[in-house]
Automatic annotation (TrEMBL):
Site keyed Cleavage: positions: D160, T161
Name used for this protein in its record: N(4)-(Beta-N-acetylglucosaminyl)-L-asparaginase
Species of the source: Rubricoccus marinus
Full protein stretch here: 40 to 340 of 358
Keywords annotated in UniProt: Signal
Protein's UniProt keywords contain Membrane: no
Amino acid sequence: VPLAQAVIATWDNRAAAEAAWNRLTAGEGALDAAEQGVWIPEADPSDTSVGLGGRPDRDGKVTLDACVMDHQHRCGAVAALQDILHPVSVARRVMEATPHVMLVGDGAREFALQQGFEPTDLLTDASRRAWEAWRETPEAQVRPPINVERRRPVSADDHDTIGLLALDRRARLAGACTTSGWGYKLPGRVGDSPIIGAGLYVDGSVGAATATGHGEEMIRIAAAHSVVEAMRFGLSPEAACQSAVERLARVTPSDTREIQAGFLALTPDGASGAWALQPGFVYVVTLPEGAPEPAGGIRAR
Ligand code: SD4
């Protein structure tokens, strides 16, 4: 019996959640579903936080961070990877074809090319123009506006870094996280998204968690791992996310009004929840027909 298949994803990444859901209902495993779900924003030039069309670094280079993790503590990651359309798949390849967990920069790019990934220019005309305009502004090295400033109603074009968690019919959890990171970041900057335990963590018997927002804040508290540990000690997914957000707010040296952190969590029996520091955070949930309404999330089907 397909007990509790589920997909949850950060922001209104409806198309990604649907794609992952379709893989699950076709009988594929959670890791395939998570990987193929996040391919959608990676390939979408209008998504300025992920993959193709993602905002470049200060010098105009698009550098991508991504990771995957499955229910058996297998994991792979890439950071500061250039010229590859699907960094999530390179992360998976690191996991499956090397003895390592993480490759960065030129090494990651070389590995991807050796593995047959095609080099692709990820800087679109629109993102090049936006970067050129940014270079002319006086604030050309400040913190990017936090997501809370995006107060328009949730719509299909409301998207950002994607963390996606999937649960398949064999009750296996997996997750993927992929981003172009902080727009106009310092060259070499790596955020939380490719760091196992910060942007993503999966413990097949306890639960999975992923994060979005200012990655420096997530790294500080090993965010996704903190959420999973809170679930291990009995908190619900939502309460676990809330506890991690509260810890982050307590310990951060940053001004909490200027940062955003949003966490999502999913358990092996299909319970999900989320919490964020600032209002304006949304997430998308895809569940079987008849499943109870998720607290807070946007139901995609
Ligand atoms: C990062 N956490 O690189 C990512 C950015 C993000 O919504 O999640 N934006 O810090």
